[in-house]
Design brief:
rod-shaped; alpha+beta; Tetrahydropterin Synthase, Chain A
Amino acid sequence: MFDFWILPVVAFLILVVSTLVFLASRYKRCSSDKILVVFGRVGAGQSANCIHGGGAMIWPLIQDYAYMSLTPMTIPIPLQKALSLQNIRINVPSTFTVGISTEPSIMSAAAERLLNLNQSQIEEMAREIIFGQLRLTVASLTIEQINQDRESFLDSIRKNVAPELNKIGLYLINVNITDITDESG
């Protein structure tokens, strides 16, 4: 009678252990310097579920996952011969620091637009946006406004650049203008 119960008990234990191993292998954790993007069937009206500093169960065949790095990117912007409001050409060499945001709406935009891009592709996309918005900002100000009130100039840049970067899932961390010169030097 004892031999009869050994086989079902062993089979049950194997089933429980293999289920636990399967579930443990499907749970994906995310460190604090990354975003875990779960895509596939994630919920009504959602293209992806973004998790920062947590974890999620990934169901095989229904869902998949990828990670996005939150490491900031430093992008040099050597803006040359941009026209100011007075039609004077100026050079505005600058450096922008951008990163993927952890704000839910911006994080979702990043998952939709940046997920399968490498860092150089993301930097190039951000560079194009920054160049355009920096030219727009310079074109709306006089030379005096740009030179005399540097803080106001930086605020104008932030107000123009940040919303455009947010549309693709990036946020502006820092702007550093190195040296502004005009045609005469």
